Amino acid sequence: MSKRMLIFAASMWIKPWTMKEGSLIGGGLICAGLILELSVGPVVWEAFAWPVNGVVLAGFLAIIAAIFLLRNKIYACRFIGTYQAAIPTLVYAVGLTIIMGLTRQTVNGTWLNNMLTFWPFVLIYVYMAVILGVVILRRLRDIPFLLNHLGLFLAMTTATLGNADMQRLKMITTVGESEWRALTQEGAVREMPLAIELKQFIMETYDDGSPKRFASEIQILTKSGKKIQATVDVNKPIEVDGWKIYQYGYDTQMGAMSQYSILELVSDPWLPLVYTGIYMMLAGAVCMFLKGKKVKR
Hints:
Number of helices: 8
Number of strands: 8
Strand content: 15-25%
Radius of gyration: 25 Å
Helix content: 40-55%
Strand order of the largest sheet: 1-8-7-6
Order of helices and strands: HHHHHHHEEEEEEEEH
Largest sheet: 4 strands, antiparallel
Structural class: alpha+beta
């Protein structure tokens, strides 16, 4: 080991900690993530379906509160709420996010091809959420700051944990027949809490015969016995009992004469919380703008 390296090692972990220690903590999390990836495989988000994700969220909030309460007794807890910890972590998070954007992401991909299940990516974002939570508790009286950062925290955590409860299914509906079964992305058959009957498939074409619009006139029967008549267009879904129903496909060989229509059914029960976080961030931005305008006057 060279003299320069010895001097560098000797200067580490001497209070007050700086961004060098913050960088090492982030690097340590990435190394720990790689070990987990090699030993237990990728993160299995399906294991966090309700009520597990609710318990995890409660435990996560308790950990953040404990770190905040112990900040005056344990130096490491105090360090978590500093910019020296936040900036290196943000750099790691941005770097991993850029890699995710530059690589093709697939459901069954491994390592960099499925970053949402890649342990280093997950651990860095979890640590960033912890830092964000501690910082929020330190500045509860700053309303614009609170709205911005609490909104980000809410959107980030609920979008992640709620991913396990999101369902995206395909249903093949046939003219004149009620269908209550749908297929998962893995091809498994699942019985639905509602039945859908295709009344008519609609297609409009351009002069060259290419599809201009295709939609489905459907009848939905809910568990309560309620019948709903609706027309589902591409990108114009309808929502029934927490399910969004999208027009997905049809018999391309039959075209306008198609006797079946493929619908996509999506349920995301945590989405309202994600939207709440986004609206809070927008409100925080407005408050900061108004506050800055007031100061200038």
